[in-house]
Amino acid sequence: MALPDLTDGFHLVVDALKLNGLDTIYGVAGIPITDLARLAQAEGIRYFGFRHEQSAGHAASIAGYLTQKPGVCLTVSGPGFLNGLVALANATTNCFPMILISGSSDRAIVDLQQGDYEEIDQLNAAKPFAKAAFRVNNPEDIGVGVARAIRAAVSGRPGGVYLDLTAKVLGSTIDVETARHSLIKVVDPAPSQPPSPQSVRRALDLLKTAKRPLIILGKGAAYAQADQDIRTFIETTGIPFLPMSMAKGILPDTHPLSAAAARSFAIGQADVVMLIGARLNWLLSHGKSPLWSESTQYVQIDISAAEMDSNRPIAAPVVGDIKSSMAAFLESLEPNAIQPSYEWLEGITQKKQKNIEKMAVRLNADPNPMNFSSALRAIRDVLSNRPDVYVVNEGANTLDFARNIIDMSEPRRRLDTGTWGIMGIGMGYAIAASAESGQPVVAIEGDSAFGFDGMELETICRYHLPVVTVVFNNGGIYRGDPEGSPPSPTGLLATARYDKIIEAFGGRGYHVSDTASLSRSLYEALESGEPTLINCVIDPTAGTESGHIQGLNPKSGLTK
Ligand code: ADP
Ligand code: TPW
Ligand code: MG
Prior knowledge:
- By secondary structure, this protein is α/β, with parallel strands linked by helices.
- It has 22 helices and 19 strands.
- Helix 2 links the parallel strand 2 (24-27) and strand 3 (46-49).
- The chain has three domains: 6-182, Rossmann fold; 197-349, Rossmann fold (3-Layer(aba) Sandwich), CATH 3.40.50; 365-547, Rossmann fold (3-Layer(aba) Sandwich).
- The N and C termini lie far apart (87 Å).
- The chain has a six-stranded parallel sheet, sandwiched between helices. Strands 15-14-16-17-19-18 form a six-stranded parallel sheet, with helices on both faces.
- The longest helix has 23 residues, at 342-364.
- Residues 398-536 form the Thiamine pyrophosphate enzyme TPP-binding domain.
- Its EC number is 4.1.1.8.
- Belongs to the TPP enzyme family.
């Protein structure tokens, strides 16, 4: 009898990923997954090798957000896995679909704690931070493991999934016929979840009673890719909308119904608020006073039933996916049934105008050194002709000012620190945004924020990605230290030349300290498509502690 043709775990993992259209891996190579990465690349999967697993993981998570397919991050065992865990947790928190695949050490040794190379009980370490976690112990289960990981990541509320592949499984052989039958092509991984017709009617009935309705769009709405239906619903009903940070651009920020420039007024005065893919978490002050009125009633569209009533009672919960839900709303909407009052719309318009005028004064000043407003005005003007550009943004003041100043006109183009306000997402998000879309990226980074993952500039240069990193160099976390004083806990080197770092990798560096040079360098960088870093000198006294969220710092009872 002839021996059966054999394959192994490495091949099966690659086959399972390819079978399910997972065509890109972000990772860091090493024992036991080096050959997996090599084989994946040889078999036509795009492999992006990073300098740190955390950045690779962030890249995978934002790839998932942009494509609705789980982004894949590949790491080694032990510390490599742990480095990827922050990104997995961040993905889960932000409802981004990703799969962290890590090789793991010999289970027999790990379980007896006999000290294997990079020994950790990875499956159990991952569980609290993941939407789901699986371990594959037999090569014939690789197909099932990958299929379950995909389904768990993208169905329902998306999240991060951990898939543990033991070194033994990767190396195990199995006959080709058994292997072929073990693979699963996942059918309809994220089935639509239409809301019940009653829930839609209940929501419309409540909206009909509203005089001062407001729609809040969250990144769940952006993720759902229901852009046209959301826009039609807003324009047909005439309800003003407020985009959460990453929902900017579903409708353009310049849209007449945008209430963004009258945020506190709109939130404080609204009688019925319709949340679409946005949670009433800290970013919306939990729906509590003083920002919110006690009498506000809520409609909430969310795929997760358990999200309802988490912070405020929801009068009209609509549990379903946003794409199906918006279609259902449009179908049931009677002409002119919803009528925001004239006073309401006028009130928002006037408040907007006042705030925009106030902001214009700051934007048009051209102080030396630059402050956040003047530098961002220069960037805004260059980007206003480039709706194709992805904007990545992190920092404290750098984040808060950029969110307000840089208008977005296309959906899913603004990628930022999200639900946690996490630092260190910048380079990973920039790399994946560019890799997934083929479009240029401008990453607007605080100098502290940039420091978390700055070495990924080498990755950007190695793959020659059109990423322009603008470092807002104010010499510190929030602000710089006074000249000549010893470093404070928030201080960073004021004279740092971040532009020299990218030059070391063959990219272009600029060092700018006025708005004209900033505009010119950004324009040139985008025209060239070359990896670029602009070290942008910002007044070290311009920032405020914690940016816009200073109130979240605990206050000592002693200093009342
Ligand atoms: P933001 O920070 O922009 O306010 P959040 O991350 O707090 O947004 O909220 C996103 C919400 O969107 C989550 O509650 C999540 O369950 C929900 N969500 C994600 N995808 C979908 C979808 N396709 N359909 C419906 N809800 C979704
Ligand atoms: C993983 C805490 C919030 S904002 C910030 C830190 C360290 C940096 C702010 O300084 P930056 O911006 O970037 O220079 P700017 O414009 O205000 O000067 N560790 C993680 N996440 C967070 N959020 C922190 C620490 C923090
Ligand atoms: Mg700073």
